[in-house]
Structures are given as structure tokens and as C-alpha cells.
Amino acid sequence: MRLVQVGADALHADEQRTNALILERLDSLAGAGSGMFGDDYLADLREEWST
Q: Is this model's pTM higher than 0.70 or not?
């Protein structure tokens, strides 16, 4: 039974490391797309969708 618990703990720790890495990479992208579209982009897009 102890072997099963140790294995489960190892898998859990690996999953936590993976999740932390994903969040770190997402955080590094914060703001990367700002300024990509013009000021009126959303208004123009909404207008286009309504027609």
C-alpha cells in the first residue's frame, strides 16, 4: 500500500510542477498582444457582426 501512495504522491507533485510551469509561461505572455489592434477594432467588429 505504501508503494501506491508514494507513486500517487510523485504523480501529484509532477502535475503541480507542470501546472506551475504553464502558469509561469502564461504570465510571461501578459500584455504581449496589447496594441496589436487599433483603438476602434472592437467597435468595428461589433458593427460588422450586427450587419
A: no
